[in-house]
Amino acid sequence: MVQFKQFPWGSIFLLLGAYTAFGKFLTETADPSTSFWIAAIWAFVLAIFFVHPLTNIGRFLNGRFQSDAVAFTSLVGLAAMASILLNWFKIFLPVFMLLACEALARIDLQSARYGERISTVIMTITAWMGLASGWMIGQVL
Question: Helices then strands (H, E): number in the chain?
Fold first, then answer.
């Protein structure tokens, strides 16, 4: 008997909606065409990033924080990033939404036993379709 994989429609439509909202947000920027090209490349990079999970993060962090000076510098840098994030919350909120939707879509695709390449293709095409539909909505409205 042939078994078909259960496709995660809910998370893919959520990803599509998130990128549509982000595409609409990008039409309001000063240079929308450059913003869309950067966002399209970002969507591909994000799909690749979420396909390869961070399994060795503990070893990475332990290797970086051997020195007190490095730990202090990292904390100062983290505080500066938090300050920038809070000042530009309107810009970072859609990015956080995209990250959360990408993570959910990746977890659902992994649970449905889709491979790394097909997951990357599905997430990238969904992101590009969302950006295109957001751009069209931004142009019409």
Answer: 6, 0
Q: What domain range is 36 assigned to? A: 9-53+83-140
Q: Which helix (H) or strand (E) holds 15?
A: helix 9-26
Q: Which long-range contacts (CB under 8 A, 24 or more apart) does 86-95 make?
A: 94/18, 94/21, 94/22, 94/25
Instruction: Give tens-digit pLDDT for 64-79.
Output: 667 777 778 877 888 8
AA identity, residue 110: Q
In a domain, 102, yes or no: yes
Query: Is 117 a member of any domain?
Result: yes
Please state the domain count of the chain: 1
